[in-house]
Design a protein that fits this description.
The chain has 107 residues and is mostly helical. It is built from seven helices and no strands.
Length: 107
């Protein structure tokens, strides 16, 4: 396990690639711990540099249909055909801990 702080776009891309390769590792394994740490580092980097990507990353890891209401609505949001409503923003913030600033940012 070679974890480091993500400071550049190159670091970010490398972290995403590594996370993809170990994503399904058992939680109680070395790779599972590495995946958890990489997720935290990726989220921190995305919150600062890619707010919309941070939202998508967290949303993809959860069952959004349960939070937002319909799978079709989730699809419309990701394709930017529909904007988040105030109620959706509140639910996403409360349930996924996505910062309000990221949810209301222009995209």
């Amino acid at each position: 396990m070679n974890i480091k702080v993500i400071k550049t776009e190159k670091d970010y891309q490398e972290a995403l690639k590594r996370l993809e390769s170990i994503f399904d590792a058992p939680a109680d394994s070395i790779e599972g711990d590495e995946a958890e740490l990489l997720t935290i580092l990726i989220e921190k980097y995305e919150d600062e540099y890619y707010p919309i990507e941070a939202i998508k990353f967290r949303m993809e890891q959860s069952d959004l249909a349960k939070i937002i209401g319909y799978k079709s609505r989730v699809s419309e949001i990701f394709s930017r055909k529909r904007k988040l409503t105030l109620q959706m923003i509140r639910k996403l913030h409360n349930q996924l801990r996505i910062p309000y600033e990221s949810l209301i940012a222009e995209y």
